[in-house]
Amino acid sequence: MSTLQFVFGASGSGKTEFCIRKALEEAGKDLNHNVYYLVPEQDTLAMQKRIVMHENNKGKGIINLDVLSFQRLYYASFSHRNKPVPKALDEMGKVMVLSLVAEKYNRNLHYFQGEIDKPGFLEEAKSLISECMQYGISPENLSNCALKSVKKLTGAKLHDMALLYAGFLNWLLEHGKYTEEGIQDLALEQVLQDPNYKNATFLLDGFTGFTVSELRCLEILMEGENNILISLEIRSREEGNLYEKGDMSSLFYLTKDAVKEVEELALKLNVKVLPAINVNLYDSISGERRKEGEVYPRFEKIPALQKICDDYAYGKAEVERASRGQEKRDVKSFEKTEQEEEQKEKQIRPFGITLRECPNILREVEEAAVEIRALVKDEGYRYRDIAVIVPDSESYRDILFRKWKDLEIPFFLEEDIKLMDSPYGKVLRSALLVLEKGFLFDTVFRYLRAFPYRGAGEEELVDRWENIARERGLKGLPAFSSLLKPEEDETEEEKEERTYKKKVEDYQAYWDLTCLFTFYERNRKSAEKGLVLKDRIDSLSELLEKTDLENRLLESLSFLSEEGMENREESFEKSIGIILEMMEKMRESLGEISISKKSFGKLFDLAFSLEKLRQIPATLDQVVVGDLRRSRFHNPKAFLFLGLSSEFLPKGMGKKIIFTEKEREFLRESGYRLSPLSWEESYIEKYYVYKAFLTPKERLYLSYPRTLRNGKSGKASPYLKELFPLFPDLKIIYSGKEKLPIYNGKRALEELVEELPKQCTGNSLFLQKEEILHRFKTESFRLLQYLWNREEYREAVERILKGIFFENTEERISKEMSLALYGEILKGSVSRMEVFYSCPYAHFLQYGLNLKDRKTSEVQAFTIGNLYHRMLELFFKKLMRRKDMEEAFGEKLEEILNEVLEELWQDPEFSLFLSGGRNEYLRMKLQKNGRRILWALGKQLLGGDFRPKAVEEEFKMEEEGLQLRGRIDRVDEYLSEDRKTLFLKVIDYKSGKKAFSLKNLFAGLDLQLPLYMDYVLQREKEKNPNREVLPSALFYFTMENPVIPYDKDSDPDKERLKAFKPSGLVNFSEESLSHLEKREEESLLLPVQCKNGEVEEKGAAVSSEKLEALLAFAKKEMLEGAKRIKEGEKGISPIRKEGDITSCSYCPYHSICGFDEDIPNFRYRSPDSRTDEELWEEILKKTEEEIEESDTGEEKTLIRAKDAKNIETRKEDGDE
Asked: What are the UvrD-like helicase C-terminal domain coordinates in residue numbering (predicted)?
């Protein structure tokens, strides 16, 4: 006849110690008598170690004593009876089967018909079916509930899940497959027949409750004439209501529920229930009754935890109820005199408990590190004596790895790693993404970047491929095949720039890409016949084998151990075997299933999300950082509980996709209980927090952050607040104001970076000795001295000092370096010189170091600008071949524009506009804007007598080591009636707003128009030596369609023409003005001001003399800039242009120069503040001076020539 006995006791009372002693005692009586010590799966190894090393285990071994979990007991039964263990369908396999079942029954579903393909549905459906199997709920039970349901929606959901559940079970039956739950059922049959599990002793320790499967196992064990001892946690004051019907809000509901279920089994099987052993009242070692007020063994060095153990989360009603229960059993145990109460209160002062509030998680982790280091250094703790809990590893993981590595604290983060995070999984999934979505920029380079490349050559080759793909907009396998021969399109300059010199075929990246092509082709060709899962897995295995991924990854993982992450290195190594094993399982169990490319990728996504990689600590002496529920800490000396914030605890329950809380309650009311509801989970969580508080033997450290990583503010968790009434004197330590201690060189450097700049303010150099002397006595200067005297930190200190005292000083490169970078002759365009005047450093980076933006195939602003330029070029070329310009700008405008655009769309540069809906809209918009621009240009042209002379005219300038090239967008001319005077107009098209300004000219930013005009004038003067050639106008024309505000009283065409007015300078002479525009009153076409119908000489209207002076001035400025470049000028000196626009506004090099106005000598240059009149005076004055110098120079040359001639004559005559 079997016996059942409970061991009751609170945390720390000695339940486990009693059970271990009992197990060793029973095992020692008879070596043929089997003793089984059952614990949760995660406790098995630690419990084996504890039993082996126990003082009562004299032989330090276990012969007939075995430590098992329920799962190990199941599998051991197969071994005992020489039965093979069936292979279980893993989580991924379940989802795959369920997807097949859902596809088959989709039409019969009432509610979930449209939900099957939604993310997360199949995973939750799988979890729900597994839950039903664990709790013994059949498809028929769900169908019955569906019929009972009053709510149609609930009934439809239950009907659908019953259908999917039944289909799932039928598939397993047809294919002879098992789930883990199904194997447990088979295992229970083996346990029933296993002689090893009869007439034995079973001790169950560490359980908070039992699942349906575990209860069935207990039932079988009770039938086998076994002695069963079960230890469960309950505190002394609740023993009285242990057998009362409790609710979920009770802290020990799980214990009460377990007792109820086990005793019902015992009653049903007529098992003898022995009196319970209460280690709350009796010492677990001696068996003697505890003295009144005596603390439990675990809390001897931290008696404050006894108070938490007895009174945590204990309301008034519960106290009264517990007291009544105690009166029935042992009234004397609660009788205390006033003196005894006082004595006890003194004993349980909150010594050993630290409560800290931190400003953020970073500071919280740092404070915890300080605590750990103090325990190790000052109190002789080992790292293994300390345990830590974080309630949300996602929020703490990165900070823990970063900060604790810096602080040299060895630790092990007890968390499961997703297979998707492993390097092997990333390569595999990226290859499947290419298969699913095709050869796109993102998919191909995600694949290539997932490989561990070694050496600069490999990386540079992939970088080059990426630039080529981005520039050409590669898409599809044939396009990406061109990457295998990148040298074919390589320029000589690019060949010199690249560092990889071997043939592309000799690089591993080349082979990886080739293997991807083969993998893709194999799946594409076979797909025509219909691919099953086995074929696809074989092709994937071939890819992984050919790329030698496993060996390459194993070589590359060594850096993790160097970073102090040995656990992660070991886990990533194991992930390779797990993934290969998973693929083999899929091949064996589901290999004959036909599967599409998309489903193949989804299958691995599901597998990677469901399969977790468990880590094992690499060394024993390290701090274990664990999880609230899963982790098991075996009473460390010190215990740190971080993250006790209301944002983390209570933990929010995830949203249920299938059954709501109400629907789960309906199932429970119908007699079918599933896992706890959300509100019940919060009470269970509270119990785990309570257990965590009672974990340590000596120190308890609690903390929470005020601010979380997402910016939310946090406050103390309600679970933490329940400690405050127990310890009124417990003070919260507020971190943030006081500085962290400095415990190593790295921390000293951090402190130095933070504090030293405060002592080195900008005016420190100008203070008196007495004012600054005290600063050298500060901690930051003592740190500076300490670090400077240590060789290993000196270089870092030098960098810190350099950064603190950095000033933007004018630095030049040598003339030799300038010559090497730019050459003897500066080549480029006028824009190059304008870049130099805008910021010399930007010029140095762009033209000296040749730093460029990465080219891309996307439509960008400059692409649209180039399109407008080409459109106008082609239109005016066609126009110049026609006789009737009025017709071209009138009824024929649309026709000519369409012809022009058709030509442009054939140009490879603009072929992008032909693809995609967005670009189609852009084409329509560009055509509309082009029509409006040409209309305005036509009005401006036909409104005067000037006609186009040249389009895209070549510009050349070669003087004093400067060689400039460019294109003048348009040159118009007018020949006077007497054919003696030729007037010229230069127009430069701009895609953005651009206004000519004398201030910009003086700053070197508006040199283009004057230089273009000067070149055209000189050329035409050479061609027309008998004519007077005069500048008439130089204009910027903005190529954009302006928005005109609505005004019913105004003429919209007139307003539009005003908005289209060009910007620049106009020759004020009447003859020039009259041919530029035939106006009656105000000017609609020119940027001039009129008064009484006459143009005023102000603003854009200037005299011929000023225009000529301006051209000479611009040329001189250009030559001056060239001289400064050759002398090596490259200062970081941007200019503030107009309003908020600066040289930095659209500069791509800001991340290189680091320009910051808060740093000394980093300032924007300002344009000349003088008025236009003053600037014209300056231009005229400089021009006059130049002419005078030129004339003087010519006179001196003539005198020297005359003197030389006279000397020669005298020599011939014999004079001395």
From this structure: 317-577
